[in-house]
Amino acid sequence: MEKLIACVQEKPDAICRLICFPWAGAGTADLAKWGRLFNDAIEVYCIRLPGRETRLEEPFAKDMTSAVNEITSVLLKSLKEKPFAFFGHSFGTYLSFACALQLKEKYGLEPVHLFLSAAHTPNVSYRIINIMKQNHKLATKSKNNILHLLVLKKKNPPFLYVEANPKYMYLMECFMTTVYVHRFEKTDMNTPLSCDITYFCGSEDKIFDTKGWQELTSGDTSFYELPGGHLYLLKPSNQSFLIKHITKALENANQ
């Protein structure tokens, strides 16, 4: 549990746990600190994937399934103890959604709320992955070509950000390996969840088909656009909005 989860402030009397899933290449620092910002009713866990921080020497997860299996198996006991919710940003959105699917299908557990951020809906991502697959020979020649292909096909600022920061290149390679092998088939799109979903994004980000998230649950869905780009959530004013909104939603869910 300790190597997978960062929890900066334990709250044994909390009525709900918020499990946070960082974006590709990120550690736990930015989201784990939310544990000090929420009231005592909400305890925050942040997922630490292999190859990051204290797990730096561990090999990256070979695919999405491996990452999901580790997370759900390690967290299973905790998730049975009290209600829980997920917050995922960018790649973390896909990982949190995949974990929610497995928890429901395999264990009959479901988050009380999914908070999703800065990510295309899975069916759109599936089409993008198919484009990448068609260009596999180009994409596997070098890390630079992988980034070039993504910038051309997705026109997405986060990849420009990574391209401008060479020290994150190896993390992008891990991200590519993980996403490439995990696809959401059409059969996965038949309203798999029943929890409420709230989707957030930055006003300057390039995200496709955000409304498609409402097709993935029979619960209520809501959408919020906040000022900023792909990492809008790092702005103090936006962080404050997220904390207040998530708190209110979880308190209502547990009444």
UniProtKB/TrEMBL annotation:
Name of the protein in question: oleoyl-[acyl-carrier-protein] hydrolase
Family: Belongs to the thioesterase family.
Superkingdom per UniProt: Eukaryota
E.C. number(s) listed in UniProt: 3.1.2.14
Pfam family, one: Thioesterase
Residues annotated as domain Thioesterase: 17-249
Signal sequence segment: none
GO BP: medium-chain fatty acid biosynthetic process
Enzyme class: hydrolase
Species of origin: Taeniopygia guttata (Zebra finch)
GO molecular-function terms, A-Z: fatty acyl-[ACP] hydrolase activity
Organism classification: Eukaryota, Metazoa, Chordata, Craniata, Vertebrata
